[in-house]
Amino acid sequence: MKISLYVFAGWKLIGSPTEPFSYGNTTLIVGCYTLALFLLDDASRFALHAIMHKSDWLWRIHQVHHSATTLTPLSTLRLHPLESLLYQTRGSLVHGLAAGTAFFFLGFHPDSWHIWGASIWILIFNALGANLRHSPIKMSYGRLEKIFISPSQHQAHHGVTTMNKNFGSILSIWDRMAGSWRSGKEDYKWPQRAQPLWKQLLLKEIDWK
User: Fold this and answer.
1) How many Å apart are CA 179 and CA 58, to the nearest integer?
2) Maximal C-alpha separation, the chain
3) d(CA 130, CA 76)
C-alpha cells in the first residue's frame, strides 16, 4: 500500500489528481483497473523471466527451477530464494504502480477491498495456471496458443534445448512480439540428470543433459 501512496504523491508533483467518480461507476472502473493490472502483471512477469534467461548471473539463480527432471505442480515452488525475492519485489512494484496511477488518473478512491480484491483475482488466476503448466499433462490449446500459453508450451520451455522459448506466464502475445514464441509440439526433452541441491543454491553452473 505504501508504494501506491508514493506513486500517487509522485504524480501529484506534475499536476492535480482527477476528481473521484460517482459510486455508480465503481464496477466499470474496477473492471478496467483489473484488466490493466492483469496485462501489466503478465507483461512484467514475462520481462523478468526473459531477463533471467539472458543474464548469466540471473540465470544461475533461475536454473534451480529448470533443473527438475520431471514436472509436477510442486515444481512451481522449486525456486532459489533470490528468485522468490525478485518476483515478490516485482509484484509489489507492479501492483503499487497500478494502484497509485489509478488513484491519480481515474479519480477512483475505492475501499481497500476493491483494490486488493482485484489483486487477489490476479493471484488466483496465476496460481491455478502455474499448477496446470507445471504438470505432466500434455495439453495444447491449438490455435489459441498464439494468445495463451498452454501447458504444452510451458513444458516445452522446460526442455533442455528449447528453454529460450515461451517465457510468458498466461499470455503468449509477449513471446510473439519478442520472437520467442513456439508451439507446444512435443519435440523436446527435460533434464535427464538430477543436480545436487547445494550446487544449485551456491549458483554453480550446471551441465545440462
Assistant:
1) 21
2) 60
3) 7
Q: Are 60 and 98 in contact (CB under 8 A)?
A: no
CA 83 to mean position of chain CA atoms: 12
d(CA 64, CA 148): 25
* pLDDT per residue as tens digits for the range 196-207: 766 677 777 766
How far from the centroid of its chain's Cα atoms is residue 9's Cα?
A: 27
C-alpha span between 98 and 125 (Å, rounded) = 18
pTM as predicted: 0.82
As a whole number of angstroms, the distance between CA 39 and CA 8 comes to 20
Centre a 10 Å sphere on the Cβ of residue 112 and count the other Cβ atoms it contains: 8
**Sequence-ordered list of residues with C-beta below 8 angstroms from that of 181, at least 6 positions apart, any chain:** 146, 165, 166, 172, 175
pLDDT at 153 over 90: yes
Residue 49 CA to residue 68 CA, distance in Å, equals 17
Which grid coordinates belong to 134? 507445471
